[in-house]
Fold these 3 entries.
Entry 1:
Amino acid sequence: MLDIKYLRDNFAAAQKALATRSGELDLSGFQALDQQRRELLSETETLKAEKNKVSALIGQTKDKSQVQGEIARMKEVSAQIKELDERLRSVEEQLSELLMGIPNIPHEQSPVGASEEENVEIRSWGDRPNFAFAPQAHWDIGEKLGILDFERAGKISGARFALYTGAGARLERALINFMLDLHTEQHGYLETLPPFLVNRASMTGTGQLPKFESDLFHTEEVDLFLIPTAEVPVTNIHRDEILNEKQLPLCYTAYTPCFRKEAGSHGRDTRGLIRQHQFNKVELVKFTRPEDSDAELETLLQNAEKVLQLLELPYRVVDLCTGDIGFSAARTFDIEVWLPGQECYREISSCSNFRDFQARRAAIRFRREGAKKPELVHTLNGSGLAVGRTLLAILENYQQADGSVLIPEVLKPYMGGLEKIDN
RNA sequence: GGAGAGGUGACCGAGAGGCCGAUGGUGCUCGCCUGGAAAGCGGGUGUAGUGAAAGCUACCGGGGGUUCGAAUCCCCCCCUCUCCGCCA
């Protein structure tokens, strides 16, 4: 959520900045609603002050017969207050709905552009493998090795689910452990294991609600949502809290499964592990002081890149343009891994600085040393990494002519010393 | 799922229609005292909205209601604890 005061005072500038994002945005009602709200507020508060004053007087008067007129008048005032409050509530509801639907203002340094075509590659790492044979896609490799079973997953659940077996399941688990160990032992993140079902307040805090409810799996009788990313429960760890400046930055990592409806992506990436209703992810989340968030995004991005470097998987880093940045983010870097089976780069991590957008929604603040007023923190997060996509990248990059797949050096200890997966 | 007890400021804990944004204590902080510290003494110490400011308004788990007036009474919901049931 944007700062209403900022929007009020910089309406034209905000509108201009927001126009560089994709999608339609109608802010025309804002100024009138904002005005109405303040008028109603002042009106009802004047009446409340009057009511409070007179009621105190009535309380002090022993002989109530002397104040019958006051009592009657206050009854009238109370009714007026009630009516004004109702109008105020309706205006505030409309205003909040409008405000909650406004995306974050892009970072000044984000490249301006209309779509992903205009994202800017800022660096790449590693050498793409040269194969003396035609590399296969991971779904073929995995099925032939008997470690991925999409057909039975379809039977059990439906489309966009995967069944891992044997070395496949082990490899997924090895990756989770490897990533968590790296981030906790080398990068200083605190491991967490949060709930996978969260309430509306949490989803609203990070920006999934109210706008993107249709992307979420929802449970019927208890009004909970399956998390689409660990960002939601982990960022909400500190919802409605005031942190000490000394604690910052707070850095958390979490492994969780993620659940997404993928509504609107019918027919896209229907094969393989790329786009699943359920997938595993290790997430990195930071809470920082405002002045530190740009630098912290850079280190978070490097922490995510480190996973690919250690796994020796070639990748590139892309600075998302204003038209491609997600709703809540101000700035986003995507890491894209090279997939030889499909001869393209695919997103494997998305690292974002949300600035105070989520913090305002979720009321996550901190108090500076000696300061009276608390301030909003900045929140950041990034995948470190999407586990399923990492596994498929290994299958495609480490595949051999005979159909086997070598295990990356750093994963061998996590695979019980296994050197390669074959039949 | 059943029965009971609770949810008050950073924390503990009073308050049971008006004198309560809330006694007291702990913590924190500033000052005095001290060679320094402890102890002691004195002051300060919630958040938000609105306003140029003084101030005003709201908030005692959440939402409704009764009343001139609600932390306090009534209704619904949520959460925590204890016991029983069930279960990993």
Entry 2:
Amino acid sequence: MRPREFDHDDVLRIAFDQFWRKGVRGTSLSDIARDAGVQRGSLYNAFGSKEALFLQAYERYAGDYLVALQKALGAGSLRKRLTAFFDLTITNFRSGSPPRGCPTTRGLMELGATEGEGLDEDARRAFANLVSRITALVQDTLSAGAERGEFSGNPAVAALHIITVTRGLAVLERAFDDEPQLRKIAVHTIDLVLGKGAR
Amino acid sequence: MRPREFDHDDVLRIAFDQFWRKGVRGTSLSDIARDAGVQRGSLYNAFGSKEALFLQAYERYAGDYLVALQKALGAGSLRKRLTAFFDLTITNFRSGSPPRGCPTTRGLMELGATEGEGLDEDARRAFANLVSRITALVQDTLSAGAERGEFSGNPAVAALHIITVTRGLAVLERAFDDEPQLRKIAVHTIDLVLGKGAR
DNA sequence: GACGTATTTGACACGATGTCAAAAACATGC
DNA sequence: GCATGTTTTTGACATCGTGTCAAATACGTC
């Protein structure tokens, strides 16, 4: 059989970058094909469809991101861990050239928009899955913190609250493009969760 | 001069409904034209472009929504006001048929995605403007509450935190479709802000 | 060295946005 | 009452996007 003339992973990286910058619906397969030096038809042959290509590119990213988060949440006092978590979150959707933004949040709000199902539904599941796993990581961190007496509250509820704030930050980032503001909100959230508001 | 054969506001309503349900990029002017019983060309003549039409439809919605929010924030104890605020927020992006979601958040993440500027930038400004105005409303409510001794904290920061949570709720809504969870997060947020966490 | 299989390539169908000129419908002035 | 002028409507067109398909191609394999 004839061997493939392009690198699978290279294409996924290039595709994800384009999707991230211009949105899924705003990126054409012609764009990606041109950037990757591949024929459009080859992409269809290799990945099936535009959204299938996006899904694979996204899963790639999600895996890497989860690993980085796990690392950020893994050392130091509870406050340090949460600070590192928010830092990584904000850095993630502020890196690279604008308009970037959080890929997961972008995807969640942009896809899954069709009334029926289909691939959009698969994408929604992928996004939701990453959010779930991040929430679990935060919850575990809080539980461990509670055992060490650094936190007294409901880890499940607090983790949900924290994850909600990070998603909100992803939205505010696009509305205002004001990084100091985002960091202020993050610090304030940590204070509230750790009970510094209990003054 | 020849009179228009369709009602300007009717079209805006129909268009907004479609945009809301299927996303801006997922809705075609042909769809709207068919639904509204208007020729596609007439829409271009009357509104200029798809995104201009969306902008007008959105502004319409934003005005109505702001009025409703103002009402929700205007009566009762501070806790009651904030509860009404979160209720309205959640109800807003859970009303109607799926997949709905918060129009502003949907728009913010979907539009403003092009690297350059143009109409996307106008849309971004419109979204950001609504978020700003809502934040101001919440901040005023908190300030008033502080004067009555119902709140002791920085109204500006707390308002930002609250608005961040509402945007996060809009994202979680699409990820999980779990309304009780959203309401739980809302209650928890109010507790944190009002200092019930100060036990 | 011939064969089979997977990839590449280019043409095609279809639908979307946006433009334009010609046709149509009404208000206005004579 | 009728001609005029302005605006809307209408349909054709150009362009670009997705997705499909069959023919051509290039490589492992026997």
Entry 3:
Amino acid sequence: MTSSKPADALTIEQQICYAMHTTVRAFDAVYRELLAEHGLSYPQYIALMAIGEHGPLTVGALGELMRLDSGTLSPLLKRMEAAGLVGRTRDRADERRVLVALTDLGRDRLAGVSEVPRAIAARSGLTLSQLAELRSTLERLTATLETARP
Amino acid sequence: MTSSKPADALTIEQQICYAMHTTVRAFDAVYRELLAEHGLSYPQYIALMAIGEHGPLTVGALGELMRLDSGTLSPLLKRMEAAGLVGRTRDRADERRVLVALTDLGRDRLAGVSEVPRAIAARSGLTLSQLAELRSTLERLTATLETARP
DNA sequence: CACAATTCTGTTGTGCACAATTTGATAGTA
DNA sequence: TACTATCAAATTGTGCACAACAGAATTGTG
């Protein structure tokens, strides 16, 4: 019962899914470590930056930016609201919408994590131009993967 | 209360974490779509390939390959066992260990998803050499991120 | 105006992920 | 032998993710 391995068979180590998977695990661990002292999870960190940069956002607009649906964002935002980082208010103009905005504490927290990108860049061992090129590749890849969707 | 944006501030769109996050979301959606008809989740697909390629594995060894701990793998493997894809047996030589191996059905299922890597490559819009280069970059990045860990 | 269709958010159920702890087995040492 | 330390897997608790659905508000059409 020896396992058969044709010469043209892709081993798991040769597949893009495995490379992406292990890289994400590694990034996740480093972000977890850097964000722990700030009381933020990785998704909360991204949400904090997105809201801070794009002002008050509806849940749907934040979901488009983060590629998450309401089933993920609603409980995540409630936890951030409970932590005092964001405020959620109904949009007067359209009562179906909920506007999410940073509180003063949220802005302070955002300022407190401003050195994280630099720390991540250092940990990655890549030069700024290598990072920029990787980012560019990932952006094109994301765009292609998303356009092919039904 | 206009948001202040210094010229040197990184916008979220310029950060590697955001690019990785959106790419992972996009990959996840495509894999979910391709694997749905086979009754596999993305982590289950990776586990299936890893076990099929590296023969019977302990939970710990599979965890090293997949960068997952027992808290994630135990229930995942139990679901795969319930689906008839893998068998779990205590290692006679060391009763602390559990050996995970593919069943005949698991091998059939693995053969059934053999075209997935090619489909993913096509969806990515990248050439084989571009994919290989991206994979190489990710592998080096993963190695660096993992070595810096305490 | 009435009413059907659409839009937006939230809830429920299932699966994936880790930290912390528990249970059981092995190895090492007095 | 007994005692400790270590190791492997499983369990528990919390958070993140989607699919499917529910409910309220808005929009479009007659």
